[in-house]
Protein backbone atom coordinates (compact mmCIF):
# COMPACT_ATOMS: atom_id res chain seq x y z
CA UNK A 1 0.00 0.00 0.00
CA UNK A 2 1.27 3.46 -0.92
CA UNK A 3 1.15 6.24 1.64
CA UNK A 4 1.96 9.92 1.20
CA UNK A 5 3.88 11.88 3.83
CA UNK A 6 5.07 15.45 4.07
CA UNK A 7 8.73 15.49 5.12
CA UNK A 8 11.30 18.12 6.03
CA UNK A 9 15.04 18.24 5.34
CA UNK A 10 15.84 16.46 8.60
CA UNK A 11 13.55 13.50 7.90
CA UNK A 12 15.18 10.19 7.02
CA UNK A 13 13.01 10.04 3.88
CA UNK A 14 14.44 13.29 2.52
CA UNK A 15 17.76 11.85 1.21
CA UNK A 16 16.10 8.99 -0.71
CA UNK A 17 13.59 11.48 -2.16
CA UNK A 18 16.49 13.65 -3.36
CA UNK A 19 18.20 10.58 -4.85
CA UNK A 20 15.00 9.70 -6.71
CA UNK A 21 14.68 13.25 -8.08
CA UNK A 22 18.29 13.19 -9.20
CA UNK A 23 18.08 9.73 -10.82
CA UNK A 24 14.66 9.87 -12.48
CA UNK A 25 14.17 13.58 -13.19
CA UNK A 26 17.29 15.73 -13.11
CA UNK A 27 19.70 13.29 -14.78
CA UNK A 28 17.36 13.14 -17.79
CA UNK A 29 18.14 16.80 -18.49
CA UNK A 30 21.82 16.62 -17.63
CA UNK A 31 21.57 17.99 -14.09
CA UNK A 32 22.34 16.77 -10.62
CA UNK A 33 20.89 18.09 -7.38
CA UNK A 34 23.82 20.41 -6.73
CA UNK A 35 23.43 22.06 -10.15
CA UNK A 36 19.64 22.30 -9.67
CA UNK A 37 20.20 24.11 -6.38
CA UNK A 38 22.62 26.51 -8.11
CA UNK A 39 20.11 27.23 -10.88
CA UNK A 40 17.17 27.64 -8.48
CA UNK A 41 18.67 28.92 -5.21
CA UNK A 42 16.49 28.55 -2.16
CA UNK A 43 13.67 26.68 -3.92
CA UNK A 44 14.43 23.31 -2.35
CA UNK A 45 14.68 24.84 1.12
CA UNK A 46 11.52 26.96 0.70
CA UNK A 47 9.43 24.03 -0.52
CA UNK A 48 7.32 21.50 1.30
CA UNK A 49 8.30 18.00 0.24
CA UNK A 50 5.77 15.21 -0.21
CA UNK A 51 6.92 11.61 -0.65
CA UNK A 52 5.15 8.45 -1.72
CA UNK A 53 6.29 5.43 0.28
CA UNK A 54 5.70 1.76 -0.43
CA UNK A 55 7.26 -1.05 1.63
CA UNK A 56 9.51 1.50 3.33
CA UNK A 57 10.92 2.83 0.05
CA UNK A 58 10.42 6.29 -1.48
CA UNK A 59 8.80 5.73 -4.88
CA UNK A 60 7.71 9.28 -5.66
CA UNK A 61 7.99 12.88 -4.58
CA UNK A 62 6.77 16.38 -5.37
CA UNK A 63 7.48 19.85 -4.00
CA UNK A 64 5.11 22.70 -3.10
CA UNK A 65 6.18 26.25 -2.43
CA UNK A 66 4.18 29.41 -2.05
CA UNK A 67 4.89 32.27 -4.40
CA UNK A 68 6.84 35.03 -2.69
CA UNK A 69 4.60 37.90 -1.75
CA UNK A 70 1.43 35.85 -2.07
CA UNK A 71 -1.14 36.07 0.67
CA UNK A 72 -1.18 32.72 2.46
CA UNK A 73 -3.62 31.29 4.97
CA UNK A 74 -6.36 33.88 4.75
CA UNK A 75 -8.29 32.48 1.80
CA UNK A 76 -6.97 35.40 -0.21
CA UNK A 77 -5.02 35.50 -3.42
CA UNK A 78 -2.18 33.14 -2.53
CA UNK A 79 -0.72 30.87 -5.11
CA UNK A 80 1.60 27.91 -4.98
CA UNK A 81 3.98 26.18 -7.33
CA UNK A 82 4.19 22.43 -7.83
CA UNK A 83 7.67 21.31 -8.92
CA UNK A 84 10.03 18.36 -9.12
CA UNK A 85 7.20 15.84 -9.58
CA UNK A 86 8.65 12.37 -10.10
CA UNK A 87 7.56 8.76 -9.68
CA UNK A 88 10.02 5.89 -9.89
CA UNK A 89 9.77 4.15 -13.25
CA UNK A 90 8.81 0.86 -11.59
CA UNK A 91 5.81 2.53 -9.91
CA UNK A 92 4.45 4.54 -12.83
CA UNK A 93 0.94 3.86 -14.06
CA UNK A 94 -0.33 2.81 -10.61
CA UNK A 95 -1.80 6.12 -9.45
CA UNK A 96 1.18 7.19 -7.32
CA UNK A 97 1.52 10.52 -9.13
CA UNK A 98 -2.16 11.24 -8.64
CA UNK A 99 -1.88 10.51 -4.91
CA UNK A 100 1.07 12.91 -4.64
CA UNK A 101 -0.75 15.70 -6.49
CA UNK A 102 -3.91 15.17 -4.44
CA UNK A 103 -1.95 15.41 -1.17
CA UNK A 104 -0.17 18.55 -2.38
CA UNK A 105 -3.45 20.20 -3.43
CA UNK A 106 -5.17 19.22 -0.18
CA UNK A 107 -2.38 21.01 1.69
CA UNK A 108 -2.33 24.00 -0.69
CA UNK A 109 -6.08 24.58 -0.71
CA UNK A 110 -6.64 23.43 2.87
CA UNK A 111 -4.15 24.41 5.55
CA UNK A 112 -2.30 26.97 3.41
CA UNK A 113 -5.49 28.56 2.04
CA UNK A 114 -4.07 29.11 -1.44
CA UNK A 115 -6.34 30.06 -4.33
CA UNK A 116 -4.39 28.36 -7.11
CA UNK A 117 -1.38 26.18 -7.87
CA UNK A 118 0.61 26.25 -11.09
CA UNK A 119 3.45 24.22 -12.55
CA UNK A 120 5.61 23.85 -15.63
CA UNK A 121 4.49 20.58 -17.23
CA UNK A 122 6.47 18.51 -19.72
CA UNK A 123 4.60 17.89 -22.95
CA UNK A 124 4.27 14.14 -22.30
CA UNK A 125 2.50 14.84 -18.98
CA UNK A 126 -0.17 17.29 -20.22
CA UNK A 127 -2.87 14.59 -20.17
CA UNK A 128 -2.03 13.52 -16.62
CA UNK A 129 -2.72 17.03 -15.31
CA UNK A 130 -5.70 17.69 -17.61
CA UNK A 131 -7.48 14.63 -16.18
CA UNK A 132 -7.22 16.21 -12.73
CA UNK A 133 -8.71 19.55 -13.84
CA UNK A 134 -5.56 21.56 -14.57
CA UNK A 135 -5.74 23.99 -17.51
CA UNK A 136 -3.08 25.31 -19.86
CA UNK A 137 -1.86 28.89 -19.66
CA UNK A 138 0.08 30.52 -22.46
CA UNK A 139 2.20 28.90 -25.12
CA UNK A 140 4.72 26.08 -24.98
CA UNK A 141 8.28 27.00 -24.02
CA UNK A 142 11.59 25.28 -23.47
CA UNK A 143 13.01 24.81 -20.00
CA UNK A 144 16.20 22.81 -19.42
CA UNK A 145 15.98 21.68 -23.04
CA UNK A 146 12.49 20.16 -22.69
CA UNK A 147 9.17 21.46 -24.04
CA UNK A 148 6.85 22.60 -21.24
CA UNK A 149 3.67 24.54 -20.73
CA UNK A 150 2.38 26.30 -17.67
CA UNK A 151 -0.71 24.64 -16.21
CA UNK A 152 -2.83 25.83 -13.30
CA UNK A 153 -5.64 24.61 -11.09
CA UNK A 154 -7.76 26.82 -8.86
CA UNK A 155 -9.33 25.87 -5.57
CA UNK A 156 -12.81 26.08 -7.15
CA UNK A 157 -11.80 23.76 -10.03
CA UNK A 158 -10.11 21.17 -7.84
CA UNK A 159 -12.25 18.01 -7.75
CA UNK A 160 -11.15 17.43 -4.14
CA UNK A 161 -12.95 20.59 -3.06
CA UNK A 162 -16.33 18.90 -3.53
CA UNK A 163 -15.19 15.86 -1.53
CA UNK A 164 -14.05 18.06 1.36
CA UNK A 165 -17.33 19.84 1.52
Describe the structure.
- The chain has 165 residues and is an alpha+beta fold.
- The protein has one domain: Aminopeptidase, CATH 3.40.630.30.
- It contains 6 helices and 7 strands; from the N terminus they run βαααβββαβαββα.
- It has a 7-stranded mixed sheet, with helices on both faces.
- The longest helix has 14 residues.
Elements, N to C (H/E) = EHHHEEEHEHEEH
CATH topology-level fold name: Aminopeptidase
Roughly how many Å apart are the termini? 26 Å
What's the total number of strands? 7
Shape: globular
The named CATH superfamily:
Gcn5-related N-acetyltransferase (GNAT)
At the first level of CATH, the class is Alpha Beta
Instruction: Strand order, main sheet: write it out.
Output: 1-2-3-4-5-7-6
Structural class: alpha+beta
- Binned strand content: 25-35%
Total domain count: 1
Question: Largest sheet, described in full?
Answer: 7 strands, mixed
Instruction: Assign the CATH architecture.
Output: 3-Layer(aba) Sandwich
Instruction: Compute the average pLDDT.
Output: 89
Q: How many helix segments?
A: 6
**Percent of residues in helices:** 25-40%
Radius of gyration equals: 15 Å
Low-confidence runs of at least 5 consecutive residues: 69-76
Can you tag this structure with a few keywords?
165 residues, alpha+beta, Aminopeptidase, 7-stranded mixed β-sheet, 6 helices
Briefly summarize what is shown.
By secondary structure, the protein is of the alpha+beta class. The chain contains 6 helices and 7 strands. It has helices spanning 14-26, 33-39, 43-46, 96-109, 126-130, 159-163, and strands spanning 3-7, 48-54, 57-66, 79-87, 116-122, 135-143, 146-154.
